[in-house]
Amino acid sequence: MIRLNGQSLSFSEVRQILFDLEKVGFTEESMKLVKKSREAVERIVAEEKVVYGINTGFGKFSDVLIGKEDVEELQLNLIRSHACGIGDPFPEIVSRAMVLLRANALLKGFSGVRPVVIKRLLDLVNACIHPVIPQQGSLGASGDLAPLSHLALVLMGEGEVFYKGERIPSMDALTKEGIFPITLTAKEGLALINGTQAMTAMGVVAYLEAEKMAYQSEIISAVTIEGLRGIMDAFDEDIHLARGYKEQVEVAERIRAYLKGSYLTTRQGEFRVQDAYSIRCIPQVHGATWQALHYSKEKLEIEMNAATDNPLIFEDGEKVLSGGNFHGQPIALAMDFLSIAVAELANISERRIERLVNPQLNDLPPFLSPEPGLQSGAMIMQYVAASLVSENKTLAHPASVDSIPSSANQEDHVSMGTIGARHAYQIITNTRCVLAIEAICSMQAVEIRGKERMAAVTRSFLENGRKIVPFIHSDRVFSKDIENMAEWLKKEGMHFDTKGVVELQA
C-alpha cells in the first residue's frame, strides 16, 4: 500500500496506483494536520466570522454572507451548479488520477475538510470507482471547477461512474462496494473543486505516455537507420559532448547501443558522405524533446503535491488567507511545451517515413511495394502520417496565450491549462500513430535488406513487431495494421529504463 501525505507523491508511485492498481492510504501525521484545519473551520462557522468560501458566496458573490444554518445547502448548491461540463468524458485512467491527486492535496492540511472526505476519495481509488467527468468546460483558473464538480457529485451519491467496465449511476457502484455517500459541510465543496487536478491528472497521464513513447521513437528510429543504411558517424559521442546537452548525448548513446553489431549501418563515405537531417539530427531533435519532457515532469511533480484551493488555512486557523493557488498557469505552460515537443517527434518521424517510401530518396522498392504499380504498398500510410503531423501543428498552438474573463470580471485572467493538457494528450495519441507507421515501414525495409544483418536489439524489436503486423506480401487494409501497432506501443511494446530497452514483448 502507498500512503499519501500530501508532500511526496512521486511519478513512480502514481504509475503503480494508476496502472498496477496499487492500494492507497494516508499517513497518520498528515491526517492530524487535516483534523486541525477542520477544527479551525468549525470555529469560524460557530463564531460567525466572515471568511470567503466558508460562510460567503463564491466568485463575484464573495461579498454575500451566508448564515450558518445554510452552510450545508451552500456546498450542495455549489457542486450541483458547477457540474456543467460537456463533451466526451476524460479517459477512465485520468479520472482515477484526478481522485488520487485531489485526496493528496487535501492531505496537506490546509483545506479544512473532514477526514471522511479524504477517506471517501481513497475509497473510490481502492474500489476502482471512477467518476464520469466531461472533458470540456474548465478555464483552468479558480481551479478546474466544472470537471472537479462532477468528481464531487460522486461523493454525494450523484452523477455517474465507470465501474467494472460499465458506466452506471454512482449510487449503484457505491452500494455494491459498501461505501456510503457523504453530505458536504462548510468549506468542503469548495475545497474539492478549487484546484488544478483535472489539468494535472491529464498532464500526468500524458507525461507517462509521452515518456514511454519518446524511448520508443528512438528504437524505431534505429530500425529506420538500418533500413536506410544510415551513417553511424553522426552518433559518435565526441560530436554530442562537443555541444554539451545531456539529453542529446544520451539519445546518441542509446542509438549506438541499439545498433551495436549491425551490418546494415554504414560509415561516412562508404555509401554516402552525410545523411539527411531526419536521420543525422535524431540526437539533437529527440534530445530537445527530452529537455521539454523533463521540464514538464518537474512542474507536474510539484503540482501533484501542491495546495491549490482557496482559501488556505494556516497556524491552526489563526491565518485564513485568500490567494490564487488554483491558477493553472504553471501547468498550462508546461502542457503547451509538452505539446510542441511531442509534435516534433511526429514531425521528424514523418520525414523518415518519406525517406523510407520515396524511391527518389532510397534504393528500396518504390513505396516498399511488393509489386510497384500494381500494388501501392505504403504510399497512403505516408499520407496518413502527414495528415496527423499537420493536425498536431494546429493542436500545438499554445492554449496558455488565451484568456477570457469570467465571473463578472472578478476572475479576469485564466490559464486554459486544461485545454492545453487535453491537446497534449491528443498530440501524443496522433504521434503514436505516426511512429506506428514508421515502425511498419522500417520493418518492411530491413526485411528487404536482410533481417539477419540487423543488430540484436533491433532484430528483437522486429521479431516482436512481426507478431503484431506481418510482412507486406500484398496490399491489404493497412488501417488495422496502424491501429494494432499503435495499440501495442501504448499497452505493451517496450519497457525502458534510462539506459534503453529493458524488455520487448508482444
Automatic annotation (TrEMBL):
InterPro entries: Aromatic_Lyase, Fumarase/histidase_N, HutH, L-Aspartase-like, Phe/His_NH3-lyase_AS
Position of the 5-imidazolinone (Ala-Gly) cross-link: 141-143
Main location: cytoplasm
Residues with the 2,3-didehydroalanine (Ser) modification: 142
Subcellular compartments: Cytoplasm
EC number: 4.3.1.3
Class of enzymatic activity (EC top level): lyase
Pathway: Amino-acid degradation; L-histidine degradation into L-glutamate; N-formimidoyl-L-glutamate from L-histidine: step 1/3
Coiled-coil residues: none
Post-translational modification note: Contains an active site 4-methylidene-imidazol-5-one (MIO), which is formed autocatalytically by cyclization and dehydration of residues Ala-Ser-Gly.
Catalytic activity: L-histidine = trans-urocanate + NH4(+)
PROSITE patterns per the UniProt record, alphabetical: PAL_HISTIDASE
Superkingdom, taxonomy of origin: Bacteria
Keyword list, A-Z: Cytoplasm, Histidine metabolism, Lyase
Pfam families, per the entry: Lyase_aromatic
Family: Belongs to the PAL/histidase family.
Record's protein name: Histidine ammonia-lyase
Gene: hutH_1
